[in-house]
Amino acid sequence: MFLRAMLSSANSMSKFDLDIDKVVSIIEERCAKKIGLQLPSGLSRSALKIAKKIEDLTGATVLISGNHCYGACDVDEFLQREVDILFHFGHAEIKPIDNVIFIEVRSYANIISVLEHAIKMSRGSRIGLVSNTQHVHKLDDAREYLLQHGKDCFIGKGDSRVKYDGQILGCNFSAARVDADEFIYIGSGNFHPLGVALATSKRVIIADPISNEVREIDSETYLRQRYAIIAKALHAKTFGIIVSTKSAQTRMELAMKLKEKAFRNGLETHLISMDEITPDKLSLFKLDAFVNTACPRITIDDAALFKTPMLTPAEFEIVLGERDWSRIKFDEIIG
Ligand code: SF4
After folding, report:
1. Do 198 and 275 fall within a single domain?
2. Amino acid 2: pLDDT
3. For a FRET experiment, which of 6, 34, 166, 274 has its CA 20 to 30 Å from that of 155?
């Protein structure tokens, strides 16, 4: 599950730098009195400690967000309104937001030993390098190392949704659109490299400096699971099209287009706006299948939890007969 993945990835947070000194100096510079803290689930166990430190060092009052936080797209808007500064930890900003400061939480884990193994596994000479926010600052070092070992290296510039060259999100692989034979992803987890593999149709090697593991991502199993879910949805007559209320996830225009396409194909659809998308909440709607235009990770990471088929927009087009099965693609939110 998306949430569980975040919790487990955070078990190694001792290798990350929370940069509290920076937070304290910003509060002092701005003479802020009321501070908000928002942390991803995996870091939330540090929230009380951070809050106490801030209150002790600055005399400001701290409010901690108790809501789940899945990405930079997920700013706690209540807290933002209530405080002088909201510190949002663990993600790089997608777009500047008044009084919200993103504290990125950088890893200082050594990348060289995993790169050494990744080079041995690589088959091509032109390597694309990608990473997540925690390790993206290491990409220049990684490029240098690969060049020294005879590889050509490409770090792509993403679209406006990503802040750094080579940075990918679970919903955006624009930085992976480079002319490479294969990719090395520096980071943890399967979701991001899976997205790169499907967005580029290239082999992706995961070099995880936290667990010290190097392995190739398997996109075939994922595709088989998705085909099975699409096949189930082929018999559906009624669909819920989910639109997120989180502003950086909202794709209303896309939802409307999908509704029109469904109408042309004689299917009944209902637009449903939601903040947190859970199987419990969806069970209130007696529909045969759902289409998710919110965070793409929900469709994939939580697939096993949803009893009713949950499709990506492209998969819905396959169900409608407007897209060929071979043109299945990973859902992306383009900046
Ligand atoms: S919409 Fe994108 S940035 Fe937001 S939680 Fe999902 S994958 Fe992450």
Report:
1. no
2. 42
3. 6
